Each structure stands twice: as structure tokens, then as C-alpha cells.
Amino acid sequence: MGEAENSMDSAESSKGGGAAIKPYLEKEAIIALLLGISSGFPYAMIGATLTTRLAQDGIDKKAVTAFALAFLVYNFKWLWAWIVDGVRLPIIGALGQRISWIILSAIFVVIAVLNLGLADPKASLLYVAYSAILVGFAGATFDIVIDAYRIEILKPEQQGVGAGMNQYGWRIGSAGAASLALVIAARGGWDLAYFACAILAAPAVIAVVWGGEPIRHREAIQRQAMNIGEAIIGPFREFFSRHGAWLVLLFILLHKIGDTLGQLTLRLLLEDLGFNNDEIAIYDVGVGFWAYLIGIFVGGVVYAKMGLKHSVLLSLSLMMVSNFSFALLAAAGQSNIGLAGAIGFENFASGLAGVVLVAYFAALCNLRFTAAHYALISSASSIVGRFLTGTTAGAMVEGMGFFNFYVMTTFAAMPGIFLFWMMMRSGLVDSSIGDAAKASEEPPQKV
């Protein structure tokens, strides 16, 4: 193992017994939780919630899956992530680079979500599409600065715990918004549902006001000042100067294809099998929520016991198997037990994978370019699957049926597993680590 990974693994494995709970109660970990809540809810607004809304309005499968293209905005957030690193906002910029950008992007998200809530699919499907893209752009911008703040506020030894808490928060935000939207929409309409969910932008603002501007980011900038040109070019030059950077990027592009294809078509499967809103809320949102929380907890244990590399390999394998569970559900038909089992296993695997993959991706970042680096990495991680979902998934489902479709997504996960195994064998996992995974070289400066 490399020096960076050894430091992370030893920090995690040194915590045992009752002391294992203490890191989750630290200020930085709670901040990561709050940030995750706000990060997760815009995704739900244009994901499962919008898919259900369109399906219930009688929109055909091809049109519904085409709305997955709204998620592609997240995949291109690296194009403007440099602005978050390099542009100081007027007036509110005095609060700090990260704090001011989170406040601005939170306002942007609220406006975009309210606008989508007012859009009527029956009146103008095109306007709904534009509104969903706007939510995607606002949510992606929110994610850029939230991810940067989380990575920088956490110390290297807190990255594993912080990743877990962030995933807890993300699931609370996304599942909470999805469940709340279903319940309110059934009683007061979809516009009221979206209005109610907009309040979930608030936890991130509360978190940064409490946490203040990250010291680790200020230290990195003080060591080497950054102008606009450096903010644009520097992240790419630094990342691609690393040994094996192109292979690492290829893994990031491939590893989540099967999972993304399967998840963005899941609500269509449930509608096709005849599950109603209450059943979806209970099993997809309810059972899935608790399974995800358990997966996150187990992910922290696995990360501590197995180390970064082996825990990532395990999580990739579990995600592949989880896709096959939906093929079995499609074959079984409408079955609450089958739905609970498939949803439970998939969310358990996703929770476990979320901890170790987020920790690995955070470790790839350089603290001078945290926003740009993490935006590049996270956006690349699902772009292929989202593009395929938006352009061909609906046609594939109609052409081959849900069972064969989910079998295909299972096989689509295999190249990523094989590539990461090769990276482990060659040492590229270790050489890809950035300074976000290393302790500060200077004593912290007072705020």
C-alpha cells in the first residue's frame, strides 16, 4: 500500500470498541451529514420523483427515460467548477469563498425547484424538460461547492467517517424528498410537493455558517496563489501529470455504467409491475432507506478492516450483483417480498460503495483545486450510464424486456471491476492519491 493509503487505513483501523462511535459525533462529521442532506434532494426532484410524476401523467417510457438527460448537467459540472475555486463573489464574498458560494447556490436551487413544481407535463412537456435541466444545473453547482467544502473541512483521518456521514445525509435528503413528495402529491398536488421539498436546501447553509471557512483550503492557496488562468488550467495539468492518470479516468468512466442504467429505470420497472405509490414509498423509499443506512455503517467497518483498495473492489462486486436482483424481481412479477429483497440488497450495496468510493475520490483531489478535481471525478463517474439511459434505455426496455435489460446491466458492471483489479496490481491506486489524503504540512492558522 502507498503512504497515503496507509495513513488513511491506520487511522480508521485504530478506532475500536466504543471509540468507533466518537468520530461520528465530531463537528466535522455532523457538518458532512448536513451537507449531504442538501446535496441529495435536488437529485430526487429530477430523478425518481419526476419519473413517477411523468409516468402517472401517462407519458410514454421513451419520453420518461429521455429526462435522464437532465442528469447529464451533473456530468458537465467540471466545465464551470473552476469558477467556484477561482472567482470571488461581490459583497457576500467577504464571508469566505466556500460559504458565499454555498449561500448563492442554495438560493439558485430553491428557485429552480419551485419552477419545476409549477411546470405542467400535460401542458408543455418541453417546458418541464427545460425546468428539469435548470434544477440539474442548480443542483450540480450546489454539489460542486458542497463537495469541496466537505473534503476541505474534514481532516485526512476523518475522510472515511465523513464520507459515511455524507452518504447518510445524501440518503436522508434524497429519500426524504422523494417520500415527502409522494405523500404530499397524493393529497395536495405535485406543485405543493416540490414547494415543500425546497426547504431541504437549508441544512447546507446552516452547516457552513457553523463550520466557517475551511482552514485546509486557505493553507493550500497561501502556499501558492491562484489566478483565473490557473483556476481553469491548473486542475487538469495537475491531475493528468500523475502516473497512470488516464487509466484512473477510464476506471471512473466505466465503473458505474450498470448501476446508473439500473437505477434510472427502476421506477419504470415498479410502475410496469403494478406497484402503487404507497407500496413504492414503503419498499423503495422505506426499506431502501434503512438498508442504505446499514450499508453505510458496514462500509465504514469494511473500509477500516480491509483498507481502501480491497473495500472498493468488494463494493464494485456487490453493486454488480444488486443489478441482477432486479432481473429476478422482473421475472417474479409483482411481489412485495421480492421488491423488499431487491431494494434492500441494492441499497445496502450502494451504501457500502458510497463510503469507500467517495473516500477514494476525495483522496484523488489536490486541495488547491478541490472543487474542480472532485467535480471532474464525480461527473465522469456516471456520464456514460446517464447518456445511455437518456438515449437508448427506454428503447432497450421495450425491445428486450425488463429481465433481459437488467441482466445486461449486470454484465455492464464487469469491465470496471476488472480495470480496478488491474490498477491494484500495478500500483496505480496508490500513485493516484492527491494531497487531500495527506496531513497538513503547516500548523493550522487561526480563523
Written overview of the protein:
With about 450 residues, the chain is mostly helical. It has one domain (about 25-435): Up-down Bundle (Growth Hormone, Chain: A). Helix content is about 75%, strand content about 0%. The chain contains 22 helices and no strands. The protein has helices at about 5-15, 25-45, 50-55, 60-65, 70-75, 80-85, 95-120, 125-155, 160-190, 190-195, 200-210, 215-225, 230-240, 245-255, 255-265, 265-275, 275-330, 335-365, 370-380, 385-410, 415-425, 430. α9 runs antiparallel to α10 (about 190-195), α9 (about 160-190) packs across α18 (about 335-365) and α17 (about 275-330) crosses α21. The model is unreliable at about 1-15 and about 440-445 (pLDDT under 50).
For CATH, the homologous superfamily is named as MFS general substrate transporter like domains
The computed structural class is mainly alpha
Give the oligomeric state of the chains in this entry, treating copies of one chain as homo and distinct chains as hetero. Answer: single chain
The CATH topology corresponds to Growth Hormone, Chain: A
Mean pLDDT over the full residue set? 82
Query: How many distinct folded domains?
Result: 1
Helical residue percent band: over 70%
Number of strands: 0
Tag the structure with descriptive keywords.
447 residues, mainly alpha, Growth Hormone, Chain: A, 77% helix, disordered N terminus, disordered C terminus
Give a brief description.
The protein is mainly alpha-helical and 447 residues long.
Write the layout of secondary structure elements.
Blueprint: H1 3-13, H2 27-46, H3 48-56, H4 61-66, H5 72-75, H6 81-86, H7 97-118, H8 125-153, H9 159-188, H10 190-197, H11 202-211, H12 215-223, H13 228-240, H14 245-254, H15 257-263, H16 266-273, H17 277-332, H18 336-363, H19 370-380, H20 383-412, H21 414-426, H22 428-431
Helix pairs in contact: 1-17, 2-3, 2-8, 2-9, 2-11, 3-16, 7-8, 7-10, 7-11, 8-19, 9-10, 9-17, 9-18, 14-21, 15-20, 17-18, 17-20, 17-21
